[in-house]
Design brief:
Blueprint: E1 2-6, H1 8-17, H2 24-33, E2 38-42, H3 52-61, E3 65-70, H4 74-83, E4 87-90, H5 110-122, E5 126-131, H6 135-141, E6 148-152, H7 154-159, H8 165-181, E7 185-189, E8 208-211, H9 213-222, H10 224-236
Parallel strand pairs: 1-2, 1-8, 2-3, 3-4, 4-5, 5-6, 6-7, 7-8
This protein binds pyridoxine-5'-phosphate (PXP).
Length: 240
Amino acid sequence: MLLGVNIDHVATLRNARGGTEPDVLAAAKICEEYGASSITTHLREDRRHIKDEDVELIRKNIGINLNLEMAVTNEMQSIALRIKPHSVCLVPEKRQEVTTEGGLDVYGQLDKITNFVKPLVEAGIEVSLFIDPTKEQVEASAKTGAQFIEMHTGAYSNAYGTENEQTEFLKLKNSAILAQNLGLRVNAGHGLNYENVHRMHEIDGLYELNIGHSIISKAIFTGLDNAVDQMNFLVTKKRK
Ligand code: PXP
């Protein structure tokens, strides 16, 4: 299992003052040095954290994969086709939300998503669909031409340590089995942290975890190098 680091919140902090610090590209390079297999940036419609220039700079200056998280809009599709990240992850986006709240409704928009995925895959970009771990969404995702799903682990993360943990965990595990049987590769992310991430090892074949908030939060106290190194150890069992 690999670790992808979402560095959106480095940009959130930078934008709080409108200057250039902390430097988002420098953060990406530290993640690379300390074992991340990819960098995720979510270019939101409102550009509240990552900006277009960040995506371009990271794309050109890191050796690991860039995973561009984006909404299903024409604007984002053109940007992806121009910048050519290694992969894109399609997410639902609402202006008012603090973070991505739920998964993409692939089942309810099958034709739209299938048409959206096609030119991206044809351009050599891997496409991942960020979905809730349900049979309906997994089966629909397998029909779109996307190669990956990313299972939304928010409900599991919120339930961790409560009586609902196992129920939420089993939704992830069963969805991963179904997805892999349908030929999809499976990532997971949202809300994962240093305490709850260990159970992801109980899900066979998970490819990559995308983790942001907990790593950037820890980095304030320990430095980004340590925060990435520690999480990378929990995910890959390897240290720098
Ligand atoms: N994966 C997706 C699709 C996301 O939208 C997010 C949050 O931006 C993450 C992973 C990372 O979530 P967190 O910041 O809670 O680790």
